[in-house]
Amino acid sequence: MQLSLEIPDDIASTLNAAGGDLSRRALEGFALEELRAGRITEPQLRKMLGLARIELDGFLKSHGIYQNYTLEDFEQERKALKDLGF
Q1: Number of folded domains in the chain?
Q2: Which residues constitute the domain of residue 16?
């Protein structure tokens, strides 16, 4: 789906002066907001932005979004590693 935005020229000039691809910044901002609102998942975000899994982790961290990693998650991983002999 193609989506178009209309931004007044004077505001667009100010936004463009900040650097970077304005279309990409708009897509990233929209996608992040949809993720925060729970309307898309991380795999969907990754697909929207064309990122590899490792790139997604860095992208999310750079925007202050950290994975919800619980003590139970840690214990499951610790047990799995122990079962594998590590």
Answers
A1: 1
A2: 9-83
Q: CA 85 to CA 23: how far, in whole Å?
A: 49
Q: Is residue 26 part of a domain?
A: yes
CA distance 51 to 83: 32
What is the token pair recorded at 14? Answer: 């100010």
C-alpha angle with apex 14: 62 to 16, nearest 5 degrees? 60
3 found inside a domain: no
Q: Which long-range contacts (CB under 8 A, 24 or more apart) does 21-29 make?
A: 28/59
Chain segment 42-71, per-residue pLDDT in tens: 999 999 999 998 899 999 999 998 877 788
